[in-house]
Amino acid sequence: MKKAILVLPFLILSSFFVNAQEDQSGIRASLNLSNLYVDNVDDENSKPGFAVGFYFRKNVGDFVSIQPEINYSLKGSQINYDGVLGNGKYRFNLSYIEIPVLANFHVGESLYFSAGPYIATLIAAKTKHLDGDGSVNGVKEYDRDDFNTFDYGVAAGVGFDFAGGTAGVRYNYGLVEVAPERDALDNGKNSVLQFFIGFSF
After folding, report:
1. What is 2-77+97-120+151-200's CATH number, 2.30.30, 2.40.160, 3.10.450, 2.60.290?
2. Tell me, what's the pLDDT at 126?
3. Inter-residue contact 65 to 39 (CB < 8 Å)
């Protein structure tokens, strides 16, 4: 199952590069609200991040299109503290190169619903300590070997097209434990809510 999830997006993506001149393509960016979940998603420790990348879209029917993407996506979680000596937060940042492949189901001329798998590879992991006023108090980087560098999951969302672009909301649900050997992360998996916008070219 894992091999199928890994290979399928690359096969679909390669066909889009061959036919890119016939189909819509563009750049996209999103605000990420991410967290690490164990059994249930809990937004108490969600942190802000972002994603930037490229998307390709090909119509495969009157109401269906396929849309692979290549994105840099910043995920992770956040711990807030408030004590006698002050307050602040620890942000656990996970940087991924991510490839989702979505099926878009179009309703009318603008509205569409999306769903599909994603795969991702971890490129960096670090913790940032922020004081109560938002200033950076320290950054600690981790060895990638301490983490699962391969991640996959499912994504779903809703969007609308406008002249020259697209925008919407998407949710990514990870299916792989980020760091099963690190007790502090409680075997958490990625959970990301995205508010995105894209511009075609």
Report:
1. 2.40.160
2. 92
3. no
